[in-house]
Amino acid sequence: MWQQLLIWLKHLSFLVKKEFLTIFSDPANRVILFVPALLQALLFGYAATYDVNHVDYAILDQSNGQVSHELISKLDGSGIFKRVATLEYTGQIKQVIDSRQALVVITIPSDFESKLNNNQSSPVQVIVDGRNSSTAVVVGSYLNKIIGQFNQQKFNSALPISLETRTWYNPNQESRWSLMPSLIAALSMMQTLLLSALSVAREREQGTFDQLLVTPYTPLQIMIGKALPPIFVGLMQSTIILLIILFWFKIPMNGSIGLLYFGLLSFNVAVVGVGLSISALSLNMQQAMLFTFLLIMPLILLSGLLTPVENMPEALQIATYANPLRFGINLVQRVYLEGAGFAQVKFNFIPMIILGLVTLPLAAWLFRNRLS
Questions:
Q1: pLDDT-derived band of residue 49, with 50, 70 and 90 as boundaries?
Q2: Which of 269, 234, 228, 274 is closest to 19 using CA atoms?
Q3: Element holding 30 (H helix, E strand)
Q4: DSSP designation for 244
Q5: How many CB atoms lie within 10 A of CB 28?
Q6: Is 155 in contact with 302 (CB distance < 8 Å)?
Q7: Which helix (DSSP H) or strand (DSSP E) does residue 156 occupy?
Q8: In percent, how much of the chain has pLDDT > 90?
Q9: Which of 40, 108, 349, 354 has an alpha carbon within 20 to 30 A of 26's alpha carbon?
Q10: Helix (H), strand (E) at residue 101
């Protein structure tokens, strides 16, 4: 029995070695597998963020008094708002916004100072370019905060009940903190799915798949031999992204590295199962790539990466249970940011394990029964 197991493992090692040679023998492949993950992680970290660090604004000061000048100085000195235009009449507002010269136009009315001197509240009009709604919301919150601080310092207008807000797991409220850990699963999934989807399709196109079927290897050995290299590549890509998040963007990790990698392993097994099923169904590499690219976007949209799953229609929420990326992202975020333990994230493993148990045997069966 032990001798048969050793022979079985020896045969499997030959298949795994063959797959690794196929993947890494071409120098271009080695670059494509790891450099894009590095560049995409850096790009998302700097470009794909909802934080607003620079806002061009225009001011229309119809009051032209001391208080209005102090308020404008407060905005100019915030480090976020940069005045690009000083308007003279209301007709210029539309032109400034339409031309995107300014994201915000602030209008201080002529009776601004007189009302304040009479202990009355005076409104300040804020017009924000809403073509980018996310940025508009953030800019509005920044203005509320700055004007609130100005009121406190200038007029000492404290309310009898004050609110103190604390943000858990992201104290600085940086969108990068919530986005970047999700990329540990999302970015590695794209290439892992494509790599596994091309494995059998490549051999069909080259005419070597039929030769593989007549060897003494069982469908299980073929499936495992083709699954292990993409899983390894996926874990390597996740590691690259993790190191960038930890040491380049300095986002602290609060959870267990062992639990994180156990979750990533389960996630990659499910993704590779989907990819191998696509590969077994495809007659050539072109079909495999087409099916993969058609699948990637729905997986991302239904993962909760861009919008919460709870905000989706009920039918789509049910569909997300077949999406390993949903549970991979949720697990990574909770372990990385919250420091969640296995008891808190254990239910994320169930859909990923079920998906792997369904897709991997399906791929093994298709290896034998889906002949060109």
A1: low
A2: 228
A3: helix 27-46
A4: I
A5: 7
A6: no
A7: none
A8: 19
A9: 40
A10: none
